[in-house]
Design goal:
mainly alpha, 83% helix, globular
């Protein structure tokens, strides 16, 4: 088992297995995190964990540049994203603690979405560890990207509309009149992923990789719109929410789901 295989499977398992605990025992988990983990005074473990995290990221980049494992840049970039949380816990601790308490105890909808995203990323990491870096049947980056992203698209009507929660309220809050901080972060990560996809298209030599590269690049339209013309996008979303209780959004998500189904089939056909 090489380093990147172990890292992907290990992180993926942690991300997946912690989710049931958070939701099966919500009050106990919230009390544990706020009373034991994120105490009012910044604990010493934060700096120890921060040092370990920085060391792990640095070592991962070292392995990427020196061992020549195909696609190691993918998990290296994903692991590097942990630096965002580390920087907040280390240098903006009280604000991070206030956010954690608000999400764990009051904004359960936000917590649910964080858990879904974390579990999906965990599944992606485990798949990469088994098929991309491991000894199983070879699964290249473009197959993982096609199946992973399009499965999220396929299931969008389920987690946005069939699960009983106030999705319209969430959408209105997510796209508030004043551009939220998450927009720049998510858009930047999306654009970096598009850039990575094109880099791998030109360097990995995977047949038909141009198909997924072009289709995935369409997401850059939304990313650039959120960055450069957020107010117009927000007004468009708000207008749809006001008309027919957001029914137009439901039909858009159904269309996204059908596209996701088609693209899963195309990804399996082209890359297996």
């Amino acid at each position: 088992m090489n380093y990147f295989e172990a890292l992907s499977i290990g992180f993926g398992l942690v991300m997946i297995l912690t989710r049931p605990l958070i939701h099966l025992f919500p009050q106990r988990w919230a009390d544990f995190e706020m009373d034991r983990v994120y105490t009012r005074r910044q604990p010493i473990w934060v700096w120890l964990a921060g040092g370990f995290g920085l060391g792990l990221v640095a070592f991962t980049w070292y392995r990427h540049f020196t061992y020549g494992v195909p696609y190691s840049i993918v998990v290296t970039l994903i692991i590097s994203m942990t630096l965002v949380k580390l920087s907040q816990v280390l240098f903006n601790y009280q604000q991070f603690r206030a956010f954690a308490e608000r999400v764990l105890k009051h904004e359960r909808t936000t917590m649910n979405l964080i858990s879904v995203a974390t579990a999906l990323l965990g599944l992606v990491l485990m798949s990469m560890g088994i098929w991309l870096y491991g000894g199983g049947k070879h699964m290249n980056y473009f197959l993982i990207l096609g199946i992973g992203m399009d499965t999220i698209a396929l299931l969008k009507p389920v987690y946005m509309h069939l699960i009983p929660w106030d999705e319209n309220r969430f959408i209105a809050k997510a796209y508030a009149e004043k551009r939220p901080a998450w927009v720049a972060v998510v858009a930047a990560v999306g654009l970096l992923l598009v850039a990575l996809t094109w880099y791998l298209h030109f360097t990995a030599g995977v047949p038909h990789s141009i198909v997924i590269s072009l289709l995935f690049s369409l997401t850059a339209i939304k990313g650039l719109t959120l960055l450069l013309d957020y107010q117009r996008f927000q007004q468009w979303v708000a207008g749809m929410l006001r008309r027919d209780g957001g029914r137009q959004i439901v039909w858009i998500d159904v269309g996204v789901s059908l596209i996701g189904l088609v693209m899963i089939a195309v990804s399996v056909w082209l890359y297996t």
